[in-house]
Amino acid sequence: MKIEDLDTPSLIVDLDRMQRNIERMAEIARNAGVALRPHAKTHKIPHIGRLQLRAGSPGLTVAKLGEAEVFMDGGIEDLFIAYPLWGEAKWQRLCHLAERGSIRVAADSYDVLEGISQSAARHGIRIPVRLEVDCGFGRCGLQTPEEVRTLARRMGGLHGVTLVGLMGFGGQSYAQEDAEGIRRVAREEGEQLVGIASLLRADGFDIRDVSAGSTPTAPHVARVPGITEIRPGTYIFSDRDQVALGWGELDDCALTLLVTVISRPTPTRAIVDGGSKTFSSDTVAHGDGMGAVRNHPDYIVSWLTEEHGILEVPPDAHLPIGTRLDIIPNHACAALNLHDRLVAVRGENVEEVWPVAARGRVQ
């Protein structure tokens, strides 16, 4: 099949661009002497996860238990669930996963740890835990070094969990105005985690994992002495957001939406057959528009309704109804979660079609 044979809208990944992104981040991790554990919530596809492992990653990061189950079923058995798990049903599922492979979890409260421990003890296992530190993003995470130390000590009385490390996420990097701001956030995130790890080791805890990073911060936090692992996700495809934050150029973006012009109401307006249900309604960190039309920087995806994408185009643009366009989404992770399949292409040829297997696994 050729790309021209696809119906639209279709979500497409360029295999050569994606492989270059995989290799670039793998090289960053190797050169810094840290492990790369990619966040697979971006792609949700076991085959892509196996490509990342083939490039040297020991395992993957996921956000939800449902994602972990999909990747475990897909043969990837070393997973970190970077999310606090609450409730007996989830603790039981976690234990079943831990009996099948190597599972670490994140936590920032005694309540969650106690629940996991009780379930794990009944199964005769211990779950490795990374305590989450709020590194400035203002989401989950323990707020001070003393809070981390206190929780680490309380964990000593729990028989189904073992403290193995720390994790952080400098998500405030997405709000920075320039490269220096991103480097600063990465440096502060890394130094905060490494400092707390040193305190815990002085308290007698065996802290092996110090895990940090996102796509914008990964190249910088990886070089903070004492960081052992980075967890970027969106790098695999890149998108307009990551380009705005310094991860490559638009030409490095591997993920596009193939769409068709279905209406030309005015000489300066074109309508395509993909809207917010196709692209997502996410905006870009620094800039305007709802996507970037590949090879046509003068076409602006100005706004979206649910099923329509509205483009502002020059009055002399040759865009008859039926014209097909490739549009780079603002946010690759959100776009993936809206589609059942991802079409993998090389050149003008369709090579494979992959189900987005972990789509909708929100529990």
Envelope shape: elongated
CATH top level class name of the largest domain: Alpha Beta
- Derived from helix and strand composition plus strand pairing, the structural class reads alpha/beta
- In round numbers, the mean pLDDT is 97
CATH homologous superfamily label of the largest domain: Alanine racemase
Instruction: Give helix % range.
Output: 25-40%
> How many strands appear in the DSSP assignment?
17
Number of domains: 2
CATH third-tier fold name of the largest domain:
TIM Barrel
CATH architecture of the largest domain: Alpha-Beta Barrel
Description:
- This protein is α/β, with parallel strands linked by helices and about 375 residues long.
- The protein has two domains: about 5-10 and about 250-355, Lyase, Ornithine Decarboxylase, Chain A, domain 1, CATH 2.40.37.20; about 15-235, Alpha-Beta Barrel (TIM Barrel).
- It has helices spanning about 15-30, 45-55, 65-75, 90-100, 110-125, 145-155, 180-200, 220, 240-245, 275-280, 330-335; strands spanning about 10-15, 35, 60, 80, 100-105, 125-130, 160-165, 210, 230, 255-265, 270, 290-295, 300-305, 310, 325-330, 340-345, 350-355.
- The strands form two sheets. Strands 1, 10, 11, 12, 13, 14, 15, 16 and 17 form a nine-stranded mixed β-sheet that branches.
- The longest helix has 24 residues, at about 180-200.
- The model has no long low-confidence stretch (mean pLDDT about 95).
